[in-house]
Write a structure and sequence with these properties.
The complex is a heterodimer of chains A (114) and B (536). With 114 residues, chain A is mainly α. Chain A is built from four helices and two strands. In chain A, helix 2 packs antiparallel against helix 4. The N and C termini of chain A lie close together (8 Å). Helices cover 76% and strands 0% of the residues of chain B. Chain B contains 19 helices and no strands. Classes of the chains: A mainly alpha (114), B mainly alpha (536). At the A-B interface, helix 1, helix 2, strand 2 and helix 4 of A face helix 5, helix 9, helix 10, helix 12 and helix 19 of B.
């Protein structure tokens, strides 16, 4: 079972400026990006269903728009994953470490429940 | 030596190796954290491989290659949904879950709720999703043994299902998460090496000219250019607009389901920190992405070199496309012996794949039974760690036995749709509950319970009255007809229903706990008070 901590500690951290900044940096990156890749993916699925003439257009040799569009979904997935890991390492991890370090040295919150 | 004998020998080597690992792991599996989460001591790369191992089922290896070989481009649509889905897990779920949970999906859902109703709902949903997925895999194993090893008797299929079931029970009961994770890692490496080898040989035959490969595939398929575009399997001209809506419905379930699959979610607990969880998903995305690009070449390669007609005559669903392709390129390049060896290798890899996936599913459902239902619902949190682990092991045995029995009963039915149904339930019930729990301050017990049951019930009911269960020649019960809805995939309705139920359930209940929300939000984003690795 999780050890019960004094809840006011969490509420105080949550209200603090640093945590608010961490949450803002996290949400303002992942929420718009999630909407973007879902829209991009749905566009692809909808075109595959309703715009087959366009998707069948040959670009070079036997490579058509559908194939390029599909491969671009792979490329965008790899790029977004890479961009997120960069964003998290540069903008999120330092604040999270600092907040955790502070709380642990003040000994308000122990090592966490085993 | 025949390819059947060689396949069997290779497969037995895999079984011996993984059983060895399992018994080694069993000596290091003592605490609950060991059994449920492998001591949280796997590295990002190891867990990334295991994520690939858990995820790349026989359905995605043989199934997608088969769909591409027979229906062309449509198989690719499937793999894209399966891959993009991992971004939902990476951005919204993996790290936050690692930081705020312990052993199961319900740990996060029940964090600030009344534990008994929420854990009951999460436990039921976990077991239902896992059993659906298990059934599809085990019935598939029974069919595969006929195709790959030439065992066509009814008794042979039943014995295969029993053998697969017993092995998966042994992996989980003795090895727990540690043993199961190593089985996934070994399988993922075998699968990647096998698929990469055949892909290289196929591309080599075409002088690494992808356009030439596609041209030959289109010509050999007998369907011309339409083979390289969507629409031969999903949303065909004959199905009209409903067929196209069905395609979008499938796409939604695939992209939103992964981050709600219990056996995927518990993978995030096997690493020491949230940062390792992030790394493991990054590795997972790389491995799974490359694998699906390989299956694209395998599928079109099979159409070009083996021919859609030959593939369809071996198996209507095209499941033998990849093995037949392995045999063909092996023969063309290295002669008869080469063909035999490559076919045997791919057949053995296919069985290893099934075994690893079913083990992961059995672990997820038995963990949830022991940790959520037994320890927190029946015992109200008074069970000791020791009792919990004993119950989890017994549950693995019982769930395994039930899965064997159901699979034997279902083995003559077409149950392939259960995989997409599992994704639909995960997307409709589990995902709304998880996202609301992590991001919505107001969310409460009534909301969590309504989201899970609302999504689960709507997805299952819609499928029962769909053409995959009755009213079509390919249905589970082809002779009956009680279908009411023209959609095979419920996601387009059931996913909004799940989110809406969660919203309505929340706002009609007055319950709201600001301090618990502060705790889960701070913990999930900072890792404060997160579960530590036990370390061995």
């Amino acid at each position: 079972m999780t050890v019960q901590h004094d809840p006011s500690v969490y509420e105080r951290i949550q209200a603090g400026e640093q945590f608010q900044e961490l949450r803002r940096r996290f949400r303002s990156w992942v929420f718009p990006m999630t909407i973007a890749f879902l829209v991009w993916y749905l566009l692809y699925v909808v075109l595959s269903g309703f715009a087959r003439g366009f998707m069948g257009t040959k670009l070079f040799g036997n490579i058509n728009v559908a194939l390029v569009f599909g491969v671009l979904q792979f490329v965008s997935t790899f790029l977004i994953a890479w961009a997120y890991s960069r964003h998290a390492a540069a903008k999120l991890d330092p604040i999270a470490d600092e907040l955790r370090g502070e709380a642990e040295t003040r000994d308000e919150i122990g090592e966490g429940a085993k | 030596m025949s390819h059947e004998t060689l396949s069997t020998i290779l497969f037995l080597v895999f079984v011996a190796l993984t059983l060895g690992i399992t018994f080694w792991a069993s000596r290091n599996t003592k605490s609950a954290a060991d059994f449920y989460a492998g001591g949280r001591s796997f590295s990002g790369l190891q867990n990334g491989l295991a994520i690939g191992g858990d995820y790349m089922s026989a359905a995605s290896f043989l199934g997608i290659a088969g769909i591409i070989a027979l229906s062309g481009y449509d198989g690719f649509l499937y793999s894209i949904g399966f891959l993009v889905a991992w971004l939902v897990a990476l951005l919204l779920v993996a790290e936050l879950m690692r930081n705020s949970g312990k052993y199961t999906m319900a740990d996060v859902l029940a964090f600030r709720m009344s534990p008994r109703p929420v854990r009951t709902a999460a436990g039921v949903s976990t077991i239902v999703v896992s059993i659906f997925y298990l059934l599809a895999q085990m019935v598939g194993a029974g069919a595969l043994v006929g195709l790959l090893l030439g065992v066509h008797s009814e008794a042979g299929k039943i014995w295969t299902i029993i053998a697969v079931g017993l092995l998966m029970i042994i992996y989980v009961v003795f090895g727990g998460m540690k043993g199961t994770t190593w089985v996934q890692i070994v399988k993922a490496v075998m699968l990647m090496v096998g698929a990469a080898l055949i892909t290289l040989l196929v591309l080599g035959k075409f002088g690494f000219n992808l356009s030439g490969l596609l041209g030959d595939a289109a010509a050999q398929s007998g369907k011309g250019d339409s083979f390289l575009n969507a629409g031969l399997k999903y949303g065909t001209a004959a199905q009209g607009t409903w067929g196209k809506i069905d395609l979008i419905s499938l796409g939604l379930a695939l992209v939103l389901g992964t981050a709600g699959l219990p056996h995927v979610l518990i993978r995030f607990y096997t690493v020491p920190t949230a940062r390792d969880a992030r790394k493991s998903v990054l590795w997972g995305i790389g491995i799974i992405g490359v694998f699906y690009l390989l299956t694209l070449v395998l599928g079109f390669g099979a159409a070009a070199l083996v021919g859609s007609k030959t593939i369809a005559s071996a198996d209507k669903a095209g499941n033998t496309a990849a093995p037949l392709l392995a045999q063909k390129v092996g023969q063309d390049i290295f002669g008869d012996v080469g063909g035999t060896v490559l076919l045997a290798v791919i057949a053995a890899v296919a069985f290893a794949t099934i075994l690893a996936v079913v083990a992961g599913l059995t672990l997820a459902s038995s963990s949830s039974f022991a940790h959520d239902l037994y320890a927190h619902v029946f015992k109200r949190g008074t069970a000791t760690e020791r009792q919990e682990v004993v119950v989890a092991r017994v549950a693995a045995f019982v769930i395994g036995a039930v899965a064997i029995a159901l699979s034997i009963f279902a083995q003559s039915l077409n149950v392939a749709f259960l995989v997409s149904l599992a994704f639909a339930v995960a997307a409709s019930g589990n995902l709304p509950a998880i996202l609301y729990s992590l991001f919505w301050k107001r969310f409460n017990t009534a909301g969590a319970v309504s989201a899970i049951y609302g999504g689960l019930v709507s997805a299952v009911v819609l499928v029962i009255f769909s053409p995959v269960v009755s009213g079509a020649p390919t249905a589970m019960f082809p002779d009956a007809d009680f279908h009411l809805i023209p959609l095979s995939n419920p996601g387009i309705f059931s996913i909004p229903i799940g989110f809406l139920c969660g919203y309505i359930g929340t706002v009609v209940s007055k319950e709201y706990n600001a301090s618990k929300y502060a705790e889960i939000e701070v913990r999930s984003l900072t890792g404060l008070g997160a579960e530590q690795a036990t370390g061995h």
